[in-house]
Amino acid sequence: MEENEHVATPGREQRRRHRAGRLLVAAALLGWMGWAGWGAGARWVAAAWGPVDVARWGQLSEETPGTLWVVRQERLLRAPSAGRVLALVGEGEAVRRGQALLRVIPEGAQGGAATLWAPSAGIVSFVSDGLEAADAFSAPAPPRPPRDDSARPVSLVGGGVVARGQPVVRLVDHAELRGIFWPDRPSRWRPAEGQRVEVWVGAGGTGVPGSVTKAPAAPGGSLELRLERQPVEWLYRRLVPGVRLVTGRYTGVIVPSSALAARSGHTGVWVQTEGGPVFVPVQVVGRLGGRAVVQGVSDRVRVYRWPRWLGS
Predict the structure, then answer these.
(1) Which residues cross the membrane (predicted)?
(2) I need a labelling partner for 76 at 20 to 30 A (CA). Which of 14, 96, 240, 300 fits?
(3) How many separate helices (H) and strands (E) can be counted in the chain?
């Protein structure tokens, strides 16, 4: 029986292995060239037609809408005698301790005028809502804001003639103004005691600075504030709806959050220039929603909104 046996020689086996190795290297090179070409094409398309936004210098505020219940340290001062009132200070005026507030001039020829002096510094009002003793700092905060600020302010001096011992002045301590804030909707935000905040009412005006004195027991609950200023319009109301509690402000250049990219361990944005996209490292000051505030780029530069294919 004739047997056909193929016997590989050492030279032939070595050439076969070299040929297989060259084929593998060529395949890897072709694959890399294809990938590199596709990546370059993707970068070119992203640079040429990728959406861009104009970065703007500005400020973003982290705020929570809600309702504020004003808690004042206040007292009613009484007329030292009967007679006609002559006010020496204006409504809503800040006074110092020992300052003359009004004179009571007796009708007819019955003695001289009596002066009412300020026992402490504060803000003067000749209007009362009758709740001066009801709101105390030690009272626990209600679980929800009152439905209606039903108290209606009335004039203390009326027609200008008062009886002895009649309340004639409401003196509000502007150094001890507090408030209870209820957010309009549940929030995960849980402020810490001592955190600085601002209370804003409406679109204009200025905010009232303050700090948190008692944090909510649970997310979305009420919190207690110490306020550093008494707006005059708050003298005539206790329930203030439609306020905004500002808990953070971030100033810088505002860009879309999607424009932030990482490269070589640095966070930055890709800026559109005449010579092509340029990566610029930035410092992120804060993020709110879909926007970020950064420092490190100029105002009005054009940044790529989706920089994924521009490089890494």
Answers:
(1) 20-38
(2) 240
(3) 1, 21
0.70 surpassed by pTM:
no
CATH of the domain at 258: 2.40.420.20
Q: In this structure, what token pair is assigned to residue 42?
A: 């993707």
* β-sheet bridge partners, residue 298: none
Residue 246 domain flag = yes
* Predicted confidence (pLDDT) at residue 102 exceeds the cutoff of 70: yes
304: number of Cβ within 10 Å:
25
Question: Tokens 């303050």 map to which residue?
Answer: 210
Pick the closest to residue 127 from 80, 87, 84 (CA basis): 87
Q: Would you say 156 and 170 are in contact if contact means Cβ atoms under 8 Å apart?
A: yes
Domain containing 148 equals: 63-250
Cα–Cα distance list, 57 to 10, 35, 41, 48, 246 (Å):
74, 39, 33, 25, 20
* Gap between the Cα atoms of 45 and 96, Å rounded: 70
Query: What contacts 24+ positions apart, CB below 8 Å, involve 295-299?
Result: 295/252, 295/253, 296/268, 297/55, 297/253, 297/255, 297/269, 297/271, 298/55, 298/253, 299/55, 299/56, 299/57, 299/253
Which of the listed residues 200, 215, 250 is the one where a domain comes to its end? 250
